[in-house]
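Sample intake sheet
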Amino acid sequence: MMVSTDPGSDSLYLLALSYVSGIGTLGIKQLVAYAGSPEAAFYASKRVLEKIPGIGPAYIKNLQTEQESVLDLARAELKNLEKEGGQMVHYLDKEYPERLKQIPDAPPFLFCKGHFHWNHPRVLAIVGTRQATAYGKQALDAFFEEIEPYKPVIVSGLAYGIDIYAHKLALQYGLETWGVMATGVDYIYPAVHKTTAEQMQTSSAGGGILTENTTRTKPDAHRFPARNRIIAGLSDAIFVVEAMEKGGALITARLGLDYNREVFALPGNVSQRSSSGCNSLIQKNIAQICLSGSQLADIMGWEQGIETMHKKKVRIISHADPDAQKVLELMDNQGDLLMDEISWKTQIPVNQLAGLLLNLEFQGLVKSLPGKRFGLAGN
C-alpha cells in the first residue's frame, strides 16, 4: 500500500482510528508509533498488528471490519468541524501544546475555535466552585490587578461560578484565555456563556475554546473529569479560588499535583462550605496558600512585563529594518523556530537571515538554541 505524504491525512486517520471500537488514547499512540504514521497504522496487516504490544485480537478484528465506516465518520467529522469554523490539532503537529505532551494521558487531538499561543511562556489555570461567593469574586478582582502585568494565559472550564468569572476578568484585562469544554466545539455548555465564549475566540489577545470531543458531543457527566485533566495538563500552575470538599476543582488540583504542576489555593473561612475544599488542599499540602497575584508570580519565577518589553523593541527596530520586524513578529507569534522555517515564513534568504539573526542576538532580542533554532530572548 502507498502511504500518503499529505500531512492533512494524519488528522483523517487519527480520527478514524479513534472511532474503532476498543481503542483508547494510549492505544492510538502505540499503533502509530509502531506503524510509523496514522495511515500506516490504519491499513496495517493483521500480521503487523499482532506484533504491537497492547493491541489485542478484538481490536484487530474491529479495525478490519469497521474500516470503511470509521473512515466515513472521520471524513464527516472534519467537514462538520470546518463548517463550524474549527480546527483540529493533533499530537504529531508541531502546534500541539508542549505542556500536554508531558502528561501520559494527553488526548491525541484537540478541536478548537479561536487563535491560540499554545506554547506561551506562562499559562495559569483558575478553577473553583460553581457557587462562587462575593469573597471569591473580590479575591479574583484583586488577583487579576496584580497578575495582569505578567500577561499569563488564563485557562478554565467555562463553567458557572469561578470559571466564567475568571474568563471574563481575563477578557477585561486583555489576557488570552482558553475555555476547555466537555462537549463539542459546536455545543457551548452552559448556553448562557455563549457570548463570553465568542468574545474569547475573537479577542485581540488570542484565545478561544477547545475540547477533545467531536462535534455534536453533549455534556455527559463522565466527560467533565476527563476535561479537567486537559486543564491541568495545559497549565504551569493551578489556582483554586473556592471549592467544596468534592468537585471538579479538587480533581483538577490533584491531577495538577500528579503532573508536577504548581498548585495554589485561596484560604477561606473555616465555616464556609465554599472554602472547605481549598482549606483541605492546603491542610494536606496539596496546594500552597495563595493570597495575591504578585505572590503567585514570584513563586513561579515569572518576570514582569517581559512580553511588553519585547513588543516595544519590535516596534523600535521595525522603523530601521523591516526584515528584522518580520523575524521578531514571527517569533512573538509562533515561538522558537528552525532557521529554515524562519527563512521560509519570512521569505528572507538563509544567507541573509544568518547575519540578521546574529545582529538581533547581539542586541539582546533573539537567543540561539540547540539544533539551529532561534527564539525571542527572555521567553
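Comment: Residues 124 and 231 are 9 Å apart (CA to CA). Residues 67-83 form the longest helix (17 residues).
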